[in-house]
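Quick one: structure tokens for this chain, please?
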Amino acid sequence: MMKKIFINHRIFKAALFLGIASLLVSCQVGKTQAGDNMDAGDTIPMKYAQHLTMVKHGEEYTEVILANPWKEGTLLHRYILVPKGKEGNETVTRLALRRASAARCATDTVRTPVTSSVVFTGPHCQLMYELGCKNAISGVCDKNYINIPDIRKRVVDCGSSMQPDIERIISLKPEALLVSPFENSGGYGKLDKLHIPIIEAADYMETSPLGRAEWMKFYGMLFDKNADSLFTHIEQDYLHLKTIAKKLPQGLSVLTERKTGSVWYVPGGQSTIGILLKDANARYVFEDDLHSGSLAMSPEQILSKGKDIDVWAFKYFGGAPLTRAQLLQEYDGYKALHCFANPQIYEVDTSTEPYFELTSFHPEILLREFIILSHPTDHAQFKKYAKDIRMLGALRFYHRQLQ
């Protein structure tokens, strides 16, 4: 789950490279230590990503720096990507002999291209297929939750992402582990002791949809794949859809989540989903909220706004469509929602649909869904624009609940 973030990224990056602020930055412990006195290099421009900085040092190596999204002014991790081969070996030796002139920061050296990896999340597996490096996936965690048929057929199951099978991971001899970091996780336990680079895939902490997608440039470098053209295509499609949405009247109000236990988590107004709804020109009852993560609300707080919610579009893991009767068995309070009494309920079953796999790095897919959901052509307000809306095509993931 995403957390609240407050980072002045321009100041942070300036301090990092010019040394005019605090160079005594803190990083995760337990990794190989490296200094800040790297060679001068060329920063690779990032248009949207706020937590990722990449500096290319000629053909010798690329330095990748991850800002810590949970602690202002600190780093999460640093990677030195060095090509395999004799020259790369010499570069590794040269860098290893250096002493830090100022601060020390946790660093992992990764030899590229990575040809064997264990991937802990479905979205990163899907991205590797798109980048043409699927054969570098040797093992995965949470295999039963990954909606990629080829993964289920041929890739080794390394257990749960929370309790991975260490022996099985060791047997695969991976060159990198791609994991999703969490705030206050306390490290990675036995994984930390394997001396295998842990790639902390913190892309989900980006607060803009295109910011997260832009991380594919980093992942592409790990496998010696250029992701620039893929990202450019995604960016162009996203901005085109955003322009279309601006020309439409403001859409209906959309709620995207369900009650979980005694809490009803909803996206903050400045979260990725909050921004997607804004770019879709949809209304969102929490659009004025300034949080970039999820909001833990009580059911009563949500229901107090129930009359303002026109469309309910939620995800679930099930295998069969949920009916309104089943939803009421789960929580009788749902019937207080305007969209429940005047059925505008859409659902996507993530056990059968590759929702997370595709939308994580393809925000244009989800943006199109939200434009269509918030601008139904059978609504009187949008009939005038029905032709333009229909040109967007049918919904890809969300299905209207019929019972």
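The chain has 15 helices and 17 strands.
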